[in-house]
Amino acid sequence: MLETNSIQPKIYDLEERTAIFGERIIDLCKKAPKGSVTNRIVDQLIGAGTGTGGNYQEANGASSKKDFRNKIFICKKEAKEAQYWLRMLARACEELKVECKELWSEAQELIMIFSKIAKSSG
């Protein structure tokens, strides 16, 4: 496991990169105060943020090209959903706004990577 911080070199091992993304999402969510608004956002964000890498793991074990492509689309969908919940968390917890923006940007890069993979695997 790599130590994560806000300034990181780009990681080209996508399995590791998506795992670190999920870990950073978990670390961020641990900082969010508990409450009726944040609890729901945190649950959704952890699901989408960790689901990105989980689905990429599944894609790498896909049984066919079609299965692989479908799982890659799910990775993209999860990353897009994570962006939405990061935006909501930034609104709910002003003190987490900078970290939410950094993770939103990482999610955007992952979306572009998954889009490229999906196009080239079709």
Automatic annotation (TrEMBL):
Transmembrane segments: none annotated. InterPro entries: 23S_rRNA-intervening_sequence (IPR012657), 23S_rRNA_IVS_sf (IPR036583). SUPFAM superfamilies: IVS-encoded protein-like (SSF158446). PANTHER family: FOUR HELIX BUNDLE PROTEIN (PTHR38471:SF2). NCBIfam families: four helix bundle protein. This is Four helix bundle protein.
